[in-house]
Design a protein that fits this description.
2 copies of one chain form a homodimer.
Chain A lengths: L1 H8 L3 H13 L3 H8 L8 E7 L5 H14 L4 E5 L15 H9 L3 E5 L11 H12 L4 E7 L3 H7 L4 E6 L4 H8 L8 E4 L7 H9 L15 E4 L9 H16 L3 H29 L2 H12 L5 H9 L11
Helix pairs in contact in A: 1-2, 2-6, 4-10, 10-11
């Protein structure tokens, strides 16, 4: 295990790949790995890139990575989107540019499986971002799909959140209006040369989301881009991300944000593990008997569950 | 409380409304209510109607309810979809027919709020269906929006699951192909007179989903309908639902299905309550201290959480 951790810290691709596979599998060794790597993360700037399928997140991300790599910086990418073109070898609209990413020694791309249908990122994603950070990358990008649920998760594990929209994504406009997306530090309307592009920019600009950004003093911008077309807007997106990075460095903002994200991450894992512990503690026979009692009218669902929970947590438990 | 339960059992609308409001609020009195109503449910046939927003679920449901009510049966409807036209007074495409539903003494419609962004139905929905069942309705319909996550939930609380699709719902075709929707007992392609209608029927018919229905011996059908147009297909949908109801009555299938659904419902609530218990047991100061330890490299997220979980469940806990 310490050899694997050492390999990760040295930035060796095979070690990183093996480490992330452990996390992905939920292998018990992953806990030892993360213990061995503790304290090794924090140097990378972490950027979340989220938005609906087909918004061109991978294309945008590939373009950003290539520009950053050209300046000598090292880039790690986690693609959580199951439909991500990264996993299918077709990024930036053509194979030639995918090959360009592949050839670049400064760019490491890894796609990760999501488990379950429930949405949400899963704790292994945050750990994988820590692995890339510990491996010494300057930038760690996390690409994920989704509205609402996943975006709230992603905010707790990155420093800058970018939401990518496209002119046709009407659902996203609804989501913005519903206040589901008050989490972005930067909005990018990709494919903005298409019909409806400027209307989409205007819709986001006029939405309440921009007025309710959680960090006072930071005003999220709405940039148009065409990552897969003429490359319009990529430099501006990068400049704005760097501006956000610089802004976070001041007045302890980055530390405060990471602390707040870490609180959410720990609380989320604690709740998940408590639910898993409950699932493991109720065997099939107990469940079958309980179902019978409810259907026979002898008991209620809530009473049964509260009975099971009696004594959770024990007196020496978490409240200490 | 016993007065409220008695009112529900007598089928009085005000009592039903008040009971569901208690559930919706998560009022502690709801637990007493459900205890008082235990054993009172089971007579209604419960039908889940799910599908993407705009598929015309409410319109279909309204048409089914009116036909059933015309034969003297009593219909209860829970609309969980936050965008349901039921809540907005515009069902079946026009106000006249909404008024028709409203005037019908045999039809009770209630829209329910969903809590949180996480998706999933929430335990109060299953309880509300029990309330309607205890109130003596012959049919209880639960309308919900969503793909995947919500549909899996809904299957555990209804007897028949209907998935409503429309020709343009490309995401749904993807979901079917991905096996996310192996849960429907009946597929309805609504608005099937539109362009792409027969292609959609063919796509669902050819999908693997139909081959993997969880109940051996039941083959889900794919029906075209035009609930908001000429009313085409409504009679066939109703006939097929009645056929499924009759099929379930044989050979103990309904009892087996309800038992299986109840197991899932109890297990789901148990996990949710365990997570809530964990959230309540970790105070802000403990979380803040834990976040600091991780960020300082003194501890890992998993180790902290496992420490909190030590002794969960206590020896006298749920495994009994």
């Amino acid at each position: 295990m310490s050899a694997l951790a050492a390999g990760v810290r040295a930035g060796r691709s095979e070690a990183i790949a093996r480490a992330i596979t452990l996390l992905e599998r939920g292998d018990p060794a992953a806990r030892d790995l993360m213990r061995a790597l503790r304290g090794g993360a924090g140097g990378a700037h972490r950027v979340g890139v989220t938005g609906p399928p087909g918004a061109g997140k991978s294309t945008l991300l590939g373009a950003l990575a290539l520009r950053l790599a050209a300046t000598g910086q090292r880039i790690g990418v986690l693609a959580i989107d199951p439909s991500s073109p990264f996993t299918q070898g077709a990024v930036l609209g053509d194979r030639v540019r995918m090959a360009e990413l592949d050839r670049c020694d400064n760019i490491y791309i890894r796609s990760m499986a999501t488990r379950g249908l429930r949405g949400g990122l899963g704790p292994h994603v945050a750990d994988a971002a820590d692995v890339l950070d510990a491996a010494g990358f300057d930038w760690v990008f996390v690409e994920s799909v989704g509205v609402g649920q996943v975006e709230l998760d992603i905010r707790s594990i990155v420093d800058s959140t970018t939401v990518v929209l496209v002119p046709e994504s009407g659902d996203q406009v609804q989501a913005i209006k519903a206040g589901l997306m008050e989490i972005a530090d930067l909005y990018v309307v990709n494919k903005c040369d298409r019909e409806g592009g400027s209307a989409m920019v205007a819709a986001v600009l006029s939405s309440a989301a921009l007025q309710h950004h959680p960090d006072p003093g930071w005003m999220p911008e709405v940039l148009g881009a065409s990552a897969g077309g003429n490359g319009q807007g990529i430099d501006e997106v990068l400049a704005r991300l760097q501006e956000h990075r610089a802004w976070l460095q001041l007045d302890g903002r980055l530390a405060a944000r990471r602390r707040s994200g870490m609180r959410a991450r720990i609380a989320g894992l604690a709740q998940r593990r408590a639910a898993e512990r409950m699932r493991a503690s109720v065997d099939g026979a107990a469940l079958e008997a309980a179902a019978g009692r409810v259907l026979d009218g002898a008991d209620s669902v809530e009473d049964i569950v509260q009975g099971w929970l009696a004594g959770w947590p024990p007196a020496n438990g978490a409240s200490a």
